[in-house]
Amino acid sequence: MTAAVGVCSREELVIRRATQVTRKVEVMIREYDAQKDLASVEEVERTCEVGPSGTVSLIIDLLGDPLCRVRHSPAFHMLVAETCGSQKLIVGLIRGCIKTIVCGKKTRRSSAATASIPIYTKAGYILGLRVSPAHRRMGIGQKLVVQMEEWFRSNGSEYVYMATEKDNLASLGLFTGRCGYAKFRTPALLVQPVFAHRLHLSPRASLFRLQPDEAESLYRRYFSTVEFFPRDIDAVLRNPLSLATILALPTGASWPGSADRFLSHPPSSWAVLSIWDCNSLFRLEVRGVPLLLRGLAWTIRAVDRAVPWLRIPSVPNLFRPFGGYFLYGIGGEGPEAAKLLRVLCRHAHNMAREGGCGVVATEVASCEPLAAGIPHWRRLSCEEDLWCVKRLAEEYSDGTVGDWTRSPPGSSIFVDPREV
């Protein structure tokens, strides 16, 4: 059988004509107006799944506040793409925020000692880019990105970065293919389900809750030259969504009340983390899971309810809206640091259970030395996320670091919970 070249059926002709008409649609990029755009933006969010098409994906419910994921940053902005003409329709949106973060370090030598000094840069972060399925591949996403970059530049940003899944080809094609971004860092997103039972904490560890000023002092000393560490860490720690900063020490050791005294004479091992409440900001829902796995999860939960004394690690119902806590500021030193970190993660799990959460999550550098102490489920986690970066400014605030986009990765990164 030979195919006729250039001949198509009536149905194919109709589809082609409809596609051609659709692709001629013009859009205007403008600032989000909460009073008139809320319902339309929520509809776009409902039609967009997070994750590569055809696989397990997430639906995000922003609980009536499209700005919730950026409004806690020092500066934030949201744009929408609206069709032109008599019947205006919002078909895309993008969010961005700006902050000052560490991008490198330089060495200062004195007669007494050698110290590393952080180099800061002003950077923009893009998140929540959405284009309705019926209006994709028309250049709308690129227009939104370009306009957001203009806002970053006008506010003094030297760099812009974003995060996506490494196998999200559409996102990578847009950012690295058409917008000039470079692949930069590949952190691991680690997620643990919150079980029906409290987790046991080791008696070999003592936990201390630090006050915000104590946590700030410790973080500024310990994370001072870690990539992406925010200059306004005090605002993060004092935010009501930052529930606690917990320090784990070997039994018998104690917190001296000062980061200077603690770090000048530290115990043999220690670990620290902070807990951020995402449950109050947005809810997630897993979709695309095979029926067999959904049935297995339901069965395990049913058995656990019937015989709770067995303490079966039943998976929470992630197939309906759920929230979570995010762990940030993860650090520590010493041969037992990973074990102490595991105790902290268990404590965070128990807090999340009391807070009605479905998961506890964190994100760390791919070569983070403490990653072994972070409990997680491989099926729920992403062991290689992808961050991309682009240089916006022609000149740098500090020439020591050179072009940050070309710098090698460090062993750790600081993931700001305001960007989750």
UniProtKB/TrEMBL annotation:
<protein>
    <recommendedName>
        <fullName>N-acetyltransferase domain-containing protein</fullName>
    </recommendedName>
</protein>
<dbReference type="InterPro" id="IPR016181">
    <property type="entry name" value="Acyl_CoA_acyltransferase"/>
</dbReference>
<feature type="domain" description="N-acetyltransferase">
    <location>
        <begin position="27"/>
        <end position="202"/>
    </location>
</feature>
<dbReference type="InterPro" id="IPR052810">
    <property type="entry name" value="Plant_NAT"/>
</dbReference>
<dbReference type="GO" id="GO:0016747">
    <property type="term" value="F:acyltransferase activity, transferring groups other than amino-acyl groups"/>
</dbReference>
<dbReference type="InterPro" id="IPR000182">
    <property type="entry name" value="GNAT_dom"/>
</dbReference>
<dbReference type="Pfam" id="PF00583">
    <property type="entry name" value="Acetyltransf_1"/>
</dbReference>
